[in-house]
């Protein structure tokens, strides 16, 4: 058992070396958590997929696929607008030696855009397929390491010095009769040639440096940065209303059209600063192209971090970030009618409720940054037995993971970190066997279970060490229960 | 096989490898340091660089006084100028290859040819060719010299491939860069050798090699391995139909070959006028349906058209059969003329130097 774990850890280190480094904290669909995790069905097979998107574009996405009983696994990247017909031939995934059931693959993505990675598994049970949405954008500027920089600079200097000498030697001796000794005139001309070559080398170096600087600045300008959300909360009659504006100039440039995810255009999370002691999961409604608003639940006044999950119609998922100061709630006034109705799926947690049902973390164990894990939770009744769950926005459960400094934020489902909206967009767009008339949530009720599971499982790997809080949400008896767990993730 | 033959084979490896590499990027797309085309380029660099290094080491440590008397000295080491240049170019190329590998990791696979890292690579490639040309001249191997000059023309044409699409051959940039790149080689070749029609023969070598690649490359199947694919091709991209340097090259031979004398601006002007006279109508032919066949290899495009010209050419479309640039104005023509003149002047100087090269 220990040996297996060691092998798995070694495999993970090899497949995902950057996870171990405090690398890219810029990402798209989530904040500070670049890798994509998926667990679910590929036809008759249960697969668990991890995707490390490319950090530069064009670049390669690296995948690991864990599946039992497969004969072969292949991956095919399809850009949202090119579809399967514009996708390269499926890339066979290679079995990882010493780790049965684990496959790895690399697929190349040419442009910053939204892609579906189509994974096909074949084996004794036939063929199965699943689309994993991945948003690709440059996220990283790699600085040249000192060792490489030093080596290249010394080679360059040697080459330039050699080139200058060569120019001088060519003029001094190139056309000189064999055995003859260059006269002073030739020597003078040679010095002139060497000086000219040196000048040329310096000018060339300066021009090259400027050129490189331009390319670098352009690259940095294209790096994906989370978009900013401006927010204000105000008392309107008997209620408080949160007004959001998507007015980040870079966002406006995208001219993005949003697609609903679980029937909502935006999933907004509020975490109270500084300790993330209060949590809310709201669903603001659009007022116009750039503005959303939401009726606020009874959250205490104070400063909150905002994370808003949205998915573009291309399947590109974003987490917009912002901050807001909530004023105190107005006095209840039974006579006044609130103007804005709260969304029926809004939920929040002000603190420990103290009464059942309550969440239990089933596999609480030391967590290490970069190591894949499955977070397992159960919602228990007063007798310690799992309660019957009801779908909450089409899912048996939701989880939110945030680091105490706010630099990591991710919204998980039992199917992983992927945007369900993006997956549906691809499935609908390419007509891969989804009945458009069916319940929009039916397609992704996880694990193909139509009965309440005893446990909620979330595949994930914490991207960096630190103190995290995990909120778990599930619905039971018509009420949404929210549990909170603190955890320290080590290096 | 003499060391010069090895150097010539090395130059062929570099230049044909580069064409193969560009075709690979246009048809297969994905890349590692170890693609066969890259390996051909590196092997070419070593094939030309190692014999040069051997010459230098031999002359320095085991050479007779007479041998050292036929060499040029740098930092106390002796070797023929050509050998030194081959070593320098090869070292520059391999250093730039390392820089380029880092570049791809830092900024992504480049979609264009002209990047700082590729410019460094190109400098090394040109230097290797220049070294081999010096060696050939010094050894009086005129045929090899002509072959190498043709190879150098092909190298320059390949480096200019992005501005040399037939669609750009009615625009100023194509003519300006062509006038800067080609006359120097043609004029130097005409001046360096005592043989007739040297520049014309070099242009013929270039044309023949380019046509051979144009006809052979698409015989090999290939499929794109990057997403998205907007032009599903099933064979290697052929490259571009060669530019017609033969006509201006013949004029260069007639006017600038030894012992004739001609004023440099006139030489530049004649190059530009003849080049325009041939290339302008040819460009029209290359865009017409008459060129859409294996002979001319017209209308052949990169698999991911959209990414190359994101926002401009979203898909394969009518733009394929149009000229992309506005016709050049008088100022732009003057700039092309200046480029042709400077390039011819450089060719005269270098050709004169090569004709007198003794070491």
Using DSSP, what is the number of strands of chain A? 27
Work out the radius of gyration of chain B.
Answer: 21 Å
Number of helices of chain B: 12
Proper CATH architecture of the largest domain in chain A: Sandwich
Helix content of chain B: 55-70%
The helix content of chain A is 10-25%
Find the biggest chain interface.
Answer: A-B, 56 and 49 residues
Summary, kept brief:
Chain A has helices at 2-15, 17-20, 146-173, 184-222, 249-254, 420-429, and strands at residues 36-42, 45-52, 59-67, 70-79, 91-92, 94-95, 102-109, 113-123, 126-136, 230-236, 239-245, 258-259, 267-272, 279-282, 285-286, 291-295, 302-312, 317-326, 347-349, 358-361, 367-368, 373-380, 398-403, 409-412, 456-460, 466-476, 479-490. Chain A is α+β, with helices and mostly antiparallel strands and 491 residues long. Chain A folds into three domains: 2-30 and 35-136, Immunoglobulin-like, CATH 2.60.40; 153-171 and 190-222, no CATH class; 230-331 and 339-490, Immunoglobulins (Immunoglobulin-like), CATH 2.60.40.10.
Topology at a glance:
The complex is a heterodimer of chains A (491) and B (359).
Chain A: H1 2-15, H2 17-20, E1 36-42, E2 45-52, E3 59-67, E4 70-79, E5 91-92, E6 94-95, E7 102-109, E8 113-123, E9 126-136, H3 146-173, H4 184-222, E10 230-236, E11 239-245, H5 249-254, E12 258-259, E13 267-272, E14 279-282, E15 285-286, E16 291-295, E17 302-312, E18 317-326, E19 347-349, E20 358-361, E21 367-368, E22 373-380, E23 398-403, E24 409-412, H6 420-429, E25 456-460, E26 466-476, E27 479-490
Parallel strand pairs in A: 21-27
Antiparallel strand pairs in A: 1-2, 2-3, 3-7, 4-5, 4-8, 6-7, 8-9, 10-11, 11-16, 12-17, 13-14, 13-17, 14-19, 15-16, 17-18, 20-22, 22-25, 23-24, 23-26, 26-27
Helix pairs in contact in A: 3-4
Chain B: H1 3-27, H2 36-62, H3 65-69, E1 72-74, E2 77-79, H4 81-107, H5 116-138, H6 142-159, H7 172-192, H8 198-216, E3 226-227, H9 246-256, H10 264-287, H11 305-308, H12 330-356
Helix pairs in contact in B: 1-2, 1-5, 1-6, 2-4, 4-5, 5-6, 6-7, 6-8, 7-8, 7-9, 7-12, 8-9, 9-10, 10-12
């Amino acid at each position: 058992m220990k040996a297996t774990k060691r092998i798995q850890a070694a495999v993970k280190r090899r497949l995902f070396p950057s996870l171990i480094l405090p690398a890219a904290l810029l990402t798209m669909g989530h904040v500070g958590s670049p890798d994509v995790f998926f667990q679910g069905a590929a036809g008759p097979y249960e697969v668990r997929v991890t995707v490390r998107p490319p950090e530069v574009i064009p670049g390669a996405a690296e995948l690991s696929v864990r599946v039992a009983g497969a004969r072969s696994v292949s991956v095919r990247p399809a850009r949202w607008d090119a579809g399967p017909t514009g996708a390269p031939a499926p890339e066979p995934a290679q079995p990882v030696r010493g780790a049965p059931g684990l496959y790895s693959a690399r697929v190349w993505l040419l442009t910053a855009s939204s892609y579906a990675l189509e994974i096909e598994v074949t084996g004794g049970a036939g063929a199965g397929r699943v689309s994993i949405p991945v948003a690709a954008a440059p996220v990283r500027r790699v600085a040249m390491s000192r060792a490489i920089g030093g080596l290249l600079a010394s080679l360059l200097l040697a080459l330039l010095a050699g080139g200058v000498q060569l120019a001088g030697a060519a003029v001094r001796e190139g056309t000189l009769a064999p055995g003859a000794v260059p006269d002073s005139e030739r020597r003078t001309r040679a010095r002139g040639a060497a000086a000219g070559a040196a000048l040329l080398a310096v000018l060339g170096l300066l021009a090259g440096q400027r050129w490189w600087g331009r390319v670098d600045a352009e690259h940095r300008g294209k790096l994906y940065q989370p978009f900013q959300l401006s927010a204000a909360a105000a008392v309107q009659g008997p209620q408080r209303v949160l007004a959001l504006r998507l007015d980040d100039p870079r966002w406006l440039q995208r001219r993005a059209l949003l697609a609903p995810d679980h029937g909502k255009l935006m999933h907004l999370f509020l975490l109270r600063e500084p300790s993330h002691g209060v949590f809310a999961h709201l669903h603001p409604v659009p007022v116009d192209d750039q503005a959303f608003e939401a009726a606020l639940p009874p959250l205490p006044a104070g400063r909150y971090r905002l994370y808003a999950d949205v998915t573009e119609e291309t399947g590109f998922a974003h987490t917009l970030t912002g901050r807001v100061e909530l004023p105190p709630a107005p006095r209840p006034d039974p006579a006044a009618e609130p103007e804005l109705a709260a969304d029926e799926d809004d939920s929040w947690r002000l603190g420990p409720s103290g009464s059942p049902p309550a969440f239990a973390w089933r596999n609480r164990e030391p967590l290490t940054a970069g190591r894949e894990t499955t977070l397992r939770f159960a919602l228990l009744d007063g007798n310690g037995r799992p309660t019957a769950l009801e779908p909450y926005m089409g899912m048996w459960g939701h989880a939110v993971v945030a680091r105490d400094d706010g630099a990591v934020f991710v919204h998980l489902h039992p199917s992983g970190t992927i945007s369900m909206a993006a997956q549906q967009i691809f499935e609908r767009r390419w007509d891969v066997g989804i009945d458009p008339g069916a319940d929009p949530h039916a397609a992704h009720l996880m694990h193909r279970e139509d009965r309440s599971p005893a446990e909620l499982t979330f595949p994930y790997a914490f991207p960096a060490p630190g103190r995290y809080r995990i909120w778990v949400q599930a619905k039971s008896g018509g009420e949404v229960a929210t549990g909170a767990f603190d955890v320290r993730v080590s290096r | 096989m003499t060391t010069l033959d090895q150097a010539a084979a090395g130059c062929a490896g570099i230049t044909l490898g580069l064409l193969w590499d560009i075709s690979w990027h246009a048809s297969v797309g994905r890349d590692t340091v170890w693609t066969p085309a890259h390996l051909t380029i590196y092997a070419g660099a070593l094939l030309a660089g190692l014999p040069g290094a051997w010459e230098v080491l031999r002359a320095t440590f085991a050479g007779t006084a007479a041998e050292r008397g036929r060499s040029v000295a740098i930092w106390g080491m002796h070797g023929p100028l050509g050998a030194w240049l081959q070593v320098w170019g090869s070292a520059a190329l391999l250093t730039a290859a390392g820089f380029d590998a880092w570049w791809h990791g830092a900024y992504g696979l480049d979609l264009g040819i002209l990047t700082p890292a590729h410019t460094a690579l190109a400098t090394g490639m040109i230097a290797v060719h220049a070294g081999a040309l010096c060696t050939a001249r010094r050894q009086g191997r005129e045929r090899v010299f002509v072959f190498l000059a043709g190879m150098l023309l092909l190298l320059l044409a390949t480096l200019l491939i992005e501005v040399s699409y037939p669609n750009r051959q009615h625009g100023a940039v194509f003519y300006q860069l062509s006038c800067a790149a080609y006359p120097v080689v043609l004029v130097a070749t005409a001046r360096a050798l005592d043989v007739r029609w040297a520049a014309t023969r070099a242009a013929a070598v270039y044309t023949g090699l380019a046509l051979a690649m144009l006809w052979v490359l698409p015989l090999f199947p290939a499929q794109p391995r990057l997403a998205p694919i907007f032009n599903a091709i099933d064979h290697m991209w052929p490259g571009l139909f060669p530019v017609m340097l033969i006509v201006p090259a013949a004029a260069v031979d007639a006017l600038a070959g030894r012992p004739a004398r001609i004023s440099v601006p006139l030489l530049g002007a004649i190059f530009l006028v003849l080049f325009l006279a041939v290339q302008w109508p040819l460009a029209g032919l290359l865009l017409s349906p008459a060129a859409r066949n294996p002979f001319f290899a017209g209308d052949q495009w990169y698999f991911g058209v959209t990414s190359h010209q994101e926002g401009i050419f979203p898909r394969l479309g009518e733009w394929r059969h149009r000229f992309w640039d506005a016709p050049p104005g008088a100022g732009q023509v003057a700039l092309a003329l200046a480029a042709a003149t400077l390039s011819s002047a450089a060719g005269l100087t270098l050709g004169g130097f090569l004709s007198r090269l003794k070491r």
